[in-house]
Design goal:
The chain has about 150 residues and is of the alpha+beta class. The chain has a single domain, classed as Gcn5-related N-acetyltransferase (GNAT) (Aminopeptidase, 3-Layer(aba) Sandwich), CATH 3.40.630. It is built from five helices and seven strands, in the order E-H-H-H-E-E-E-H-E-H-E-E. A seven-stranded mixed β-sheet has the order 1-2-3-4-5-7-6, with helices on both faces. The radius of gyration is 15 Å and the shape is globular. The mean pLDDT is about 95.
């Protein structure tokens, strides 16, 4: 495995990984309708690239395939953490999270999906509140979580 910082040339592959992971992994906790509004397959690559460049963003590769990525901003907001469906449970998210947490100055905040909540809880994150996000009139449940 290779761990490196994000490069603009990664953006399209990360968007595809995001879409595929949500539709393959989060299917156990969300309906197809919810998955379709969460990851529509239509993304503004320019905005994603800008966001990933502004944050501390890392990718993990197995040979030349990106198998995971994550990012955290300067305030300690852990924005994205996604692992390829074929690499779930192999420590990739832990590797990414370890790097992101080291980059944080103080407390870390994230909005964890139902699927990701147990992973974050094992790392010492606490649920601050359960919340619902509306996308195209469809509610998605997630959890505001914090690690001090």
């Amino acid at each position: 495995m290779i761990i490196r910082e994000y490069q603009s040339s990664d953006c399209k592959e990360l968007v595809e990984l995001f879409y595929n992971t949500i539709h393959a992994v989060n299917v156990r906790d969300y309906t197809k309708e919810q998955l379709d509004v969460w990851a529509t397959g239509v993304v503004d690559l320019e905005n994603w690239n800008k966001s990933l460049q502004e944050h501390y963003s890392i990718v993990v590769l197995d040979d030349k395939l990106i198998i995971g990525f994550g990012d955290i901003d300067k305030t300690g907001y852990l924005d994205r953490l996604f692992v390829h469906k074929d690499y779930q449970g192999k420590g990739v998210a832990t590797i990414i999270c370890n790097r992101l947490e080291k980059a944080a100055q103080e407390k870390i905040i994230t909005h964890a999906s139902i699927t990701a909540r147990p992973f974050f809880e094992k790392r010492g994150y606490k649920v601050i509140k359960e919340q619902y996000v509306k996308r195209e009139g469809i509610e998605l449940k997630n959890f505001l979580m914090e690690k001090k």
